[in-house]
Amino acid sequence: MQHNADTIKVVIADDQELVRAGFALVIGTQDDMTVVGQAADGDEAVNLASELEPDVVLMDVRMPGMDGLEATRRISDLSPGRATTHVIILTTFDLDEYVMSAIRAGASGFLLKDTEPETLLSSIRTVYQGNAIIAPSATKRLIRQMALVGHQNDEDPTGMASDMTRHSSTRNASPRIRESTSGEEAAAYNDPEIDLLTERELEVLVEIAHGLSNQEIGDKLFISLPTVKTHVAHILQKINARDRVQAVVFAYENRLV
């Protein structure tokens, strides 16, 4: 199948042929995207990503041989001189433990397999444009995980548990204390980038961590959508986050939520 330079090239990696066929059927209805390859395991997914340089890979987690998380790590590590391949992890409700692993592996998105076709298609376009997506239900599970790990860290003076949430090995600054403007208990922050954020940017970051979309943030904070987008761009730049998913991790690491 021929495609122009603006067509989003997609590879589907799933060990179930019917699942691959279903996703391919949905994607095939779109004029701006095409399926260039299908993989039944992680090894094949990595090979196809290297050979075809797709824009997006839809990656199952549980596959025989190399699983989707390891395949995502390897795709993320492909030579820097080539075009970027974004990975969207696809999984089911019972795989809570994979949310953080997918983020650490370099995934740009995390969706549930029963997501609506329209959501799947819009998510592919979103990560193709360099942004990140995470299913609202997955965001809630991520929040629970981050809260749990934060509690474990409070009870872990050795700091061993904190390794579960580190998304960057360079973030080793000693926690600092900032007094809450609302008179609430003072909070400890691990990252100096926090001081670079304005009060409004902090508010937006908190809502990102709660899983709100740009439109929902605008409605809640009574600001326009373009203004929200500007704040989000500034936040990601200031905290050195690749995408919204890393911003969620950053917010929880620094106990903003």
Please describe what this structure looks like.
With 257 residues, the chain is an alpha/beta fold. It folds into 2 domains: 8-134, 3-Layer(aba) Sandwich (Rossmann fold); 139-253, Arc Repressor Mutant, subunit A (Orthogonal Bundle). Helices cover 44% and strands 14% of the residues. It has 10 helices and 8 strands. The protein has helices at residues 17-27, 42-52, 68-76, 98-105, 117-128, 136-154, 199-209, 214-221, 225-238, 244-253; strands at 8-13, 33-39, 56-60, 86-91, 109-112, 133-134, 176-178, 187-189. The strands form 2 sheets. A 6-stranded parallel β-sheet has the order 2-1-3-4-5-6, with helices on both faces. It has a two-stranded antiparallel ribbon with strand order 7-8. β7 (176-178) and β8 form a beta hairpin. α8 crosses α9 (225-238). The termini are far apart. Residues 153-188 have low confidence and may be disordered.
Keywords:
257 residues, alpha/beta, Rossmann fold, Arc Repressor Mutant, subunit A, 2 domains, six-stranded parallel beta sheet, two-stranded antiparallel ribbon, 8 strands, globular
Total beta strand runs: 8
CATH superfamily of the largest domain: Response regulator
* Helix/strand order: EHEHEHEHEHEHEEHHHH
Largest sheet: number of strands, sense, barrel closure: 6 strands, parallel
Helix content: 40-55%
